[in-house]
Amino acid sequence: YPMPPNATLIKAMYNSRHRNEVELEWQVDGVEQNGGWTGFHLEHRWVSERPNKRGKSNDSHVRMEERIGTQDWYRTVIQDPDIRSHTVRGLTPTVTYQFRIIPINHRTIGHPSLAKTP
């Protein structure tokens, strides 16, 4: 299958004060209609956690950075090529996340968009 076009994440925004849901919107670059993709992989990972109000020791900060450096992307498969928005629910309010979108064409995976943080 041909390589799908690139996609750009244009919006990543918390949709409530609770910070446990993020609304995402994206666009497919240079294409007006469905042409060469069958869906999307929407991925997210956490990049940092707000410290407790009591403070943290330097040792726990180092361990947290090690966990952040090896953090995997969690994937949601969107099988409708016409979808351009999605809400990610069940997030931890004290964590900062990154999101990216990847177009797919059957088994051919496109290039991931630049990661965006809400």
TrEMBL record:
<dbReference type="InterPro" id="IPR013783">
    <property type="entry name" value="Ig-like_fold"/>
</dbReference>
<protein>
    <recommendedName>
        <fullName>Fibronectin type-III domain-containing protein</fullName>
    </recommendedName>
</protein>
<dbReference type="InterPro" id="IPR003961">
    <property type="entry name" value="FN3_dom"/>
</dbReference>
<dbReference type="Pfam" id="PF00041">
    <property type="entry name" value="fn3"/>
</dbReference>
<feature type="domain" description="Fibronectin type-III">
    <location>
        <begin position="27"/>
        <end position="118"/>
    </location>
</feature>
<dbReference type="InterPro" id="IPR036116">
    <property type="entry name" value="FN3_sf"/>
</dbReference>
